[in-house]
């Protein structure tokens, strides 16, 4: 599998702004044990939010590092949205390196919340597109209760999954352990050896909680998480000719490409409920992430053509000087945050603070290889650690926000203001100074203070229709040394939610006006080695569109048939001319690359007493890969069908089957600097689950 460019089933649902039929979380036990990590809490709570929101119940995913965009922000490694796990920023360095490769394992998540528009203002730092909050397995809440599950699956391309958890509550103390391990051989093929192109990943989660005090007013919860991953992945795609001939081929020069990661997370939550509805919530957190992606560093089109020609007619001289770079980096993010919830008559006020520090330490080198006549690689020159990149990017951020929800009969007005004081620093040492003992060669920083306001409202017209509208400022800090290049935007949305005659859904229009849209320089988009990690700017950009969803469940005496349709239209437009190293010559009026105009999803299901089957049809229209003549509309439109079924053996056991890309559609997922990356072919998985 190609985890970089493939989005898991769940992440695709988020990007298209649709969800499976949502199941509200049980809130009956919240009086006993309450958790501050929930942003929305349930499907029902969405009706009270002055902006677009989605609650997605438990699903399983396959992708390792989904690229998620919302409302035309693009899909560059989630760097335009804020991703949280249990209410805490989860990116390895969300301020100093927002485009870092890391995403929590979707398969162990209990539910997901998506916020867009004015409702997302308090979560920062990047909320122009929206906020994604992933909720991990919750502790048991019923007195002297326990819960658990064992799940095992096998599938195409050597896929396997083992997932188990057990939790128990006794005498106001609860504990939970969860293990999730999965992997696959991958669906791409190398021309040499038995090397696979897949991955192996393991997650371990521990949670402990204790409720105490009069009326159980206090709650402490400790969360510890560990994960590691080895994935045989590459930036190297294919030329057009080779893609047409064999779309799942990989060139021999990428045979040593491999990413290794390790992630440790610690989170301590405290909650105190007092008075009549008052809550004080506090969280301390620490995330450590190490990654080394060892991969071929020259993957431009001319290089790919050279590799292709050599494999067709290998010569004894081989290809010398192939660089394979060790993209070795360490990340750390830590902080403390708190919220105070104050009910005051018709007002519900939330005040919060956060102090956050993060850093990325890049200590990289490049080895040289020769590609031999038999298509093997021979190491010819060992790189010196630090000789490719030797720097630390770091950030300190202090955040204060206040939000007031004012209820006036059927009208709810939400006004919010977020203040951030951000310092982002880059310290660089000579590439010939691996010990960092000769002093800095570069020391630059940006100090920024910003106010981000928002205003939203909902009006309950009647029991069937709720109107909503909102406006907020979008903001993203500039990279070190570019103090005058902050990203700012004005974001507007308006629409309605409806529930009538058995149909439920929403229609929301949105508009974003960027003064200076950011992008992040990566090898994937074609930046030169010296510029990787820097920031580039699109200038003025406008994005407009609307989102529509409608769902209904039809029922007979013996079965239910849920149907859901979602549609998103997005119109993006550059408002100025400029020459881009990445996109080519940009002219005013051009549409943004990788932002399709039309996205549609239709879900159809049939639910009987013991058998459930669901299908999903997804359509994505074509999009630009870049703005050169060859790149216009070069990402073809596609229709992909998925199918899932399960049979309930009894109330504790089930077997299930899923088929992604049912009709084995071949399509281009990406045409970045490294050539064509294909979408995932037909993939079948079968599994068994026992719950107790």
Structure report:
- The protein is mainly beta and 692 residues long.
- It has helices at residues 9-15, 240-245, 301-312, and strands at residues 53-56, 82-85, 88-89, 111-115, 131-135, 146-155, 159-170, 173-184, 199-212, 218-231, 258-274, 278-296, 319-344, 347-371, 377-381, 389-408, 411-429, 440-460, 465-476, 487-500, 503-520, 535-555, 560-574, 578-580, 584-586, 598-607, 611-620, 638-648, 653-660, 668-672, 675-678, 683-691.
- The protein has a single domain (9-691), classed as Beta Barrel (Maltoporin, Chain A), CATH 2.40.170.20.
- The protein has a 22-stranded antiparallel β-barrel. It has a 5-stranded mixed sheet with strand order 1-4-5-2-3, with no helix packed on it. It has a two-stranded antiparallel sheet with strand order 24-25.
- The radius of gyration is 25 Å and the shape is globular.
- 46% of the residues are buried.
- Taking all residues together, what is the mean pLDDT? 87
Class from secondary-structure proportions: mainly beta
Could you please say which CATH topology applies here? Answer: Maltoporin, Chain A
The whole-angstrom Rg is 25 Å
């Amino acid at each position: 599998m190609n985890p970089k460019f493939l989005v898991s089933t769940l992440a695709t649902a988020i990007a298209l702004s649709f969800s499976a039929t949502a199941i509200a979380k049980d809130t009956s036990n919240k009086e006993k044990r309450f958790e501050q990590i929930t942003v929305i809490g349930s499907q029902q709570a969405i009706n009270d939010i002055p902006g677009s929101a989605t609650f997605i119940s438990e699903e399983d995913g396959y992708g390792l590092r989904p690229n998620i965009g919302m409302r035309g922000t693009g899909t560059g490694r989630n760097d335009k949205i804020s991703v949280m796990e249990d209410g805490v920023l989860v990116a390895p360095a969300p301020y100093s390196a927002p485009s870092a490769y890391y995403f929590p394992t979707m398969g162990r998540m209990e539910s997901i919340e998506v916020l867009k528009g004015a409702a997302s203002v308090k979560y920062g730092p990047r909320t122009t597109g929206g906020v994604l909050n992933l909720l991990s397995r919750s502790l048991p809440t019923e007195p002297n209760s326990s819960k658990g599950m064992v799940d095992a699956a096998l599938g195409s391309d050597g896929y396997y999954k083992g997932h188990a958890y057990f939790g128990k509550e006794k005498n106001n103390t609860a504990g939970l352990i969860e293990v999730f391990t999965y992997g696959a051989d991958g669906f791409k093929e190398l021309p040499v050896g038995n090397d696979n192109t897949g991955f192996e990943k393991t997650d371990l989660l521990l949670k402990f909680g204790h409720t105490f005090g009069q009326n159980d007013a206090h709650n402490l919860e400790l969360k510890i998480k560990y994960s590691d991953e080895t994935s045989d992945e590459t930036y190297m795609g294919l030329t057009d000719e080779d893609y047409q001939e064999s779309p799942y081929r990989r060139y021999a020069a990428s045979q040593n490409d491999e990413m290794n990661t390790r992630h440790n997370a610690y989170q301590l939550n405290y909650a105190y409920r007092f008075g009549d509805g008052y809550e004080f919530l506090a969280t301390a957190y620490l995330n450590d992430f190490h990654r080394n992606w060892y991969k071929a560093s020259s993957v431009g089109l001319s290089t790919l053509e050279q590799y292709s020609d050599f494999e067709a007619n290998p010569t004894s001289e081989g290809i010398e000087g192939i660089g394979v770079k060790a993209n070795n980096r360490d990340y750390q993010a830590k902080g403390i945050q708190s919220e105070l919830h104050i009910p005051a008559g018709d007002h519900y006020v939330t005040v919060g603070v956060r102090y956050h520090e993060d850093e990325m330490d890049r200590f990289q080198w490049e080895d040289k290889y020769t590609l031999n006549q038999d298509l093997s690689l021979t190491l010819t020159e060992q790189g010196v650690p630090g000789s490719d990149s030797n720097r630390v990017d770091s950030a300190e951020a202090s955040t204060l926000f206040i939000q007031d929800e004012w209820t006036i009969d059927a009208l709810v007005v939400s006004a919010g203001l977020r203040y951030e004081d951000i310092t982002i620093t880059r310290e660089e040492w000579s590439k010939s100074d691996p010990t960092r003992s000769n002093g800095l060669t570069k020391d630059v920083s940006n100090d920024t203070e910003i106010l981000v306001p928002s205003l939203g409202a909902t009006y309950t017209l009647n029991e069937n229709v709720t109107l909503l509208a909102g406006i907020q400022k979008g903001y993203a800090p500039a990279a070190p040394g570019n103090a005058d290049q902050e990203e700012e935007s004005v974001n507007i949305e308006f629409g309605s939610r409806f529930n009538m005659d058995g149909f439920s859904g929403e229609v929301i229009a949105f508009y974003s006006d960027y003064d200076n849209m950011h992008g992040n320089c990566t090898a994937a988009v074609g930046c030169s080695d010296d510029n990787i990690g820097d920031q580039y700017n699109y200038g003025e950009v406008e994005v407009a569109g609307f989102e529509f969803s409608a769902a209904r469940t039809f029922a007979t005496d013996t079965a239910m048939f849920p149907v859901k349709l979602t549609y998103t239209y997005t119109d993006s437009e550059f408002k100025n001319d400029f020459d881009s190293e990445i996109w080519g010559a940009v002219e005013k009026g051009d549409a943004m690359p990788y932002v399709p105009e039309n996205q549609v999803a239709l879900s159809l299901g049939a639910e009987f007493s013991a058998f459930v089957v669901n299908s999903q049809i997804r359509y994505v229209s074509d999009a630009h890969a870049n703005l050169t003549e060859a790149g216009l509309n070069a990402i073809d439109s596609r229709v992909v069908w998925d199918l899932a079924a399960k049979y309930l053996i009894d109330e504790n056991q089930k077997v299930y089957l899923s088929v992604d890309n049912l009709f084995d559609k071949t399509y281009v997922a990406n045409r970045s600097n490294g050539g064509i990356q294909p979408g995932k072919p037909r993939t079948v998985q079968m599994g068994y689950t026992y719950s107790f």
